[in-house]
Each structure stands twice: as C-alpha cells, then as structure tokens.
Design a protein that fits this description.
single chain, Cytochrome p450, 23 helices, 7% strand, four-stranded mixed β-sheet, alpha+beta
C-alpha cells in the first residue's frame, strides 16, 4: 500500500511512500551475510576501530528509521551537541559520517572533493526512478562531469547577472500580483520561480500559476519528492536487495520507480521536442535551451533523452527553491512581530526612498536586506536532509577513519543551529549578518571556514550551481516586498490573530523545508507605493521582455567549446 502525491489547499505535497516493506525472514540471508562480512572486517581491519562515534541504535536497523522521520532536524542538532565535530549513523549497510564544523567541511568536502564528490548507489532514486539520468543522483564519472560542466556554465556569476532582465520583469509582476490578490502569495511566489527557470531553459513565460506547464512541472516534483528522501526506500538502504530476486516478489519498488521514470521522461521530452520543432520552424524563443539544442551535445556522449534531462534537471532544481525561501522569509518576518519589518522599512526608506523601487544596484547599500537573505538560508534551507557525498577512497580526519563506501554529510542543521556561533538559533534574526560583507559564493571560497555564512548550498564539487541566480532573486524580491508592503498576521472572523508555526513542525512533510500553507495579511504601505508598483508593471508590459537582448550566447559558446 502506498500514498501518492496529494494536492492540498492548492499546494502539492510529496507524500511518503512505503512499498511492500518485507518481513525480515525475506532478507535474513542477506543480512546474515552482511553481518558476517562486517564481523570479519572489524577484526581484520584495525582501522574500523577508529570510526567516528556512533549514535546508538537497534542491531541491523540502526538509524534507518531516524533518517525517515521528519524530526531528523531535531535529532541532527541533538546528536551534534552530544557527539561534537563528527559522528556516525548507519542505515542498512551504509555508514553515514556527519560533519558538524566548518573546519571539517572545508577540509573533507572542499579540499578533498576528488574523493568525496560521488554519490551513494540509489537503486530506486537513480536507477529505477531516474533511468540513470538525473545528475543529482549520478555518481562521479565522465557523464557527470560533462553534465556538471554544462549546468555550471549556464549558472556562473556572469551568466546569473545576464538574467537580470527576466528577474526584474517577473518581480514586477509578482508585486502587482500581491496588490491584486495578496491572499495567494504562496502561489505567486511559486509562479515567479517556475517562470524564471523556464524562461532561462526554454524561453517560455508563465504569467499564471494555473497553467499546463506548471502542472506538469509540479507533477514531476511530487514524484521527485517521493523518491529522494533518505531512508524512504529499503532498497536504497540495503542496495544488495536490488540484486536479490526474492525481494521483488514482496516489493513493487522497481515497477513504481519505472513508472515514475516513464512519466517524468514523457514530460521532459515534450518540452525538448517542442523546442526542436520551434527551432526547425524558425520560431524558437531565445534561450539557453535553444543554444543547447543546436550545440554538439551528441558528440559529448549524450543521447536525446539525457539532453532533455539536463534541462529538466535545472527546471526541477529551480522551480521551487526561491519560492520556498520567499515563503519562509514571510514566516520569519511574522515570527518577530513587526521588528524585522520595521528595520527593513527604515533602511529602504533611507536608501531608496519612496519615489522608486529598489534595484540590484542598491544591494551594496542595503546590508539589512542582504542579511535577511542570508538569515533565511541559515534558518531554513530548501533541501531538508542535505545532499550526500560518497567516499570513493579511504580517508582520515583528526584521527577518525572514514572508510571507502561511507556517505559523508554536511550536517547543515547541526552547523546552522550551533548556539555557540548562532545564539538562539531557532530565532529568525537578520542582525546576525548585518556586518557580513561576503556574498554566498565568496563565503564558500574563503580559506577561513569561520567566514562561511551558511551551508545551505552544500560544498565541494557538488555545490549548488544555481546559488548565484537564487541569491539575486531572493535579494530583489525581498527588497521589493519590504519596500512596498506591510506584513501582518492574518485575523479570523473574530479579529483574533491566526498564528503561524515557525518551528520545525511548521514545515511540510518530506524532503523540502517548505512551510505548511499559512495565512498572512500583506498590505501595500501607501497609495504612492501602489501607484509606482502598478505603473512600472504597465511600462514593463508595454515594453515587453526581449529575450533576444539577454546574453545566453556566452553560455552557449561554452557548451559548444
């Protein structure tokens, strides 16, 4: 029995999926073999005695179920306080090494990225449900390096700046959407993010949330959420079960995964095929995708479906991330009463004034708005469970042995909720970063790990390539929100404030740290602010968004090189 993705209150939520969990009698022989192997290695390989301290758990199962729970964040923080800089959990037959200091992340993930940039074998996530094509699950190798190079060149800092006209145009619509139907802010933020990434990849705008393109994208995201959660699938915890025929008799994981892959492939190929047809007809909009279709992707060893998945992967990664953080920012603002809102208003009124809206050029003079961006990325981060780094060689750190085949995790919760560095870490407090001068990318590159602002974009060769675009979108839209609007708690019919859950319990179940749908009262600050917001959107519509003026060519030339 399993639950499929559901749509609740207009919001798609990834549902937990448990397929045919077998009795232990089915896998007893496999576990016995693995147990004997571990026993032999323990006594023959003395290095295993130097593994990081292990979180206690029941035999065989260990922390498999802890990784499945939605209170993993609470456990990750608790275990960090108990075990310190590095500790170990175990799911199935795999050791998970959790890094809980900036120094450990810098030394292991960044400086030794050639060892720690692969991925754990996921029979369900990578093989069955992705057909071996999703780069997020792809092990390190030639194919991964090729695709990673294509994606990174699309999302370099220089490329990210070239997308400013799209971001500004979409932000202007977002502001007017908030004027016209502020109660639908959750979906307005989602429309902004999906429209931005679809224009970059395929040159297609999404002026309304209720459209066929967004429906298809979120269908994929629901399925993606079902397959990616650590511990969700027994076969991913015990990969040897994928080659154990009796397991398929009691679990339909393989069939379900293949169904997901077929449905996702159909959608990504529809986008790809339409682009190819438009190119042939001479009507294709200017976009990165157009240049990519015309590039030598086949000579790089990609087939057509893999090429479609390259663009589809970017849509998957970019369609929710910024909207999740914009909605989390609203939760953070509400959690502080009017304190954050008033501080933002003061800065924007002083620096920008009331006769124009803030722009990217104002960023250097708006330290509080920049701090709001950094703080929401510390306080919440889109990928609730982080990303795994698979050790392809044995390694050591401060006397601890990290064996080949272990999963090394940046413990984002432990790092970003460390009370020694972030007092009252559960509190949304932008002032933590008021004097932080480095951008997210500059923080990642800093030699001193203590200068890292947060770890929500990961690290090493698996760092999120879209962080430059995401940071700019967050700055622009938070600045515009705080410039033009007041944000208050909504009230019920009796005039009583409706609370918003700013705790971990306020996040939707699953792999994404998105807030549960909530209500808030968004009001324009003054008639003057409304007049300016409406006029600039009218002007933008009259002028139109000229994609041909956007410099996709640099990225296209990089792909062809």
């Amino acid at each position: 029995m399993f639950l499929r993705g559901i749509k609740s209150g207009g919001v798609f939520n990834p549902a937990y999926t448990y397929l045919g969990f077998p009795g232990f009698f089915v896998i007893a022989s496999v576990l016995a073999t693995l147990g004997l192997t571990f026993y032999r290695l323990w006594f023959e390989d003395k290095r295993l005695r130097h593994l990081p301290p292990k979180v206690p758990g029941p035999p065989i199962i260990n922390q498999t179920f802890y990784h499945m729970q939605d209170d993993l964040a609470t456990n990750a923080i608790k275990w960090t306080s108990e075990y310190g800089e590095i500790y170990r959990t175990r799911t199935g037959t795999t050791d998970w090494i959790w890094l809980n200091s900036g120094e450990a992340v810098k030394e292991i993930i960044d400086r030794k990225s050639s060892i720690y940039s692969s991925r754990l074998l996921n029979p369900m996530g990578f093989e069955a449900a992705s057909g071996g094509r999703r780069v997020v699950f792809m092990p390190r190798g030639k194919q991964w390096r090729t695709i990673r190079g294509i994606i990174h060149k699309l999302l370099t800092p220089k490329a990210a700046k070239s997308y400013a006209p799209i971001q500004v145009f979409e932000a202007k619509q977002l502001s007017v959407d908030l004027l016209d139907s502020p109660q639908d802010f959750y979906m307005h933020n989602r429309r902004y993010t999906a429209s931005l990434i679809l224009q970059i990849t395929y040159g297609r705008r999404l002026p309304k949330f209720e459209c066929d393109e967004i429906r298809k994208i979120f269908e994929v995201l629901v399925r993606f959420g079902q397959i990616r959660r650590p511990g969700q699938w027994l076969v991913d915890s015990f990969p040897s079960l994928a080659n154990f025929p009796p397991f398929d008799l009691v679990s339909n994981w393989r069939q379900f995964g293949k169904e997901c892959h077929l449905k996702d492939s159909k959608i990504w190929m529809e986008f790809w095929t339409q682009m190819c047809q438009e190119i042939e007809a001479g009507t294709a909009p200017h976009s990165f995708g157009k240049g990519f279709v015309n590039s030598n992707w086949a000579e790089k060893g990609l087939d057509e479906l893999q090429a479609a998945y390259v663009l589809g992967t970017m849509i998957e990664a970019g369609s929710e991330t910024t909207s999740v953080q914009l909605n989390n920012t609203l939760v953070g603002i509400l959690s502080r009463g009017q304190e954050v809102m008033k501080a933002a208003h003061e800065e924007l009124d002083r620096v920008v004034g009331s006769s124009r809206t803030p722009t990217f050029d104002d960023e250097k003079n708006l330290p509080y708005i920049r701090a709001m961006v950094k703080e929401v990325n510390r306080w919440r981060f889109v990928n609730k469970f982080g990303t795994n780094h698979y050790a392809t060689e044995d390694g050591w750190y401060k006397g601890y042995f990290i064996p080949k085949g272990a999963v090394v995790m940046i413990n984002i919760w432990g790092l970003q909720y460390d009370p020694k560095r972030f007092p009252e870490p559960e509190k949304y407090e932008p002032m933590r970063y008021y004097n932080h001068k480095l951008s997210a990318a500059e923080s990642v590159s800093a030699a001193n790990p203590n200068l890292r602002d947060h770890w929500c974009y990961g690290g090493g060769r698996r760092i999120c390539p879209g962080m430059h675009v995401a940071e700019r979108s967050l700055f622009l839209n938070i600045a515009r929100l705080m410039w033009g609007f007041d944000v208050y708690h909504a009230k019920d019919e009796n005039g009583v404030e409706i609370p918003v859950d700013a705790t971990f319990g306020g996040m939707i179940p699953g792999a994404t740290a998105a807030p549960q749908p909530f209500k808030c009262d968004i009001r324009v600050r003054t008639p003057q602010h409304e007049k300016i917001l409406r006029q600039e959107w009218m002007d933008a519509q009259a002028e139109g968004l000229k994609l041909e003026d956007i410099n996709f060519e640099g990225a296209e030339e990089d792909v062809k090189a």
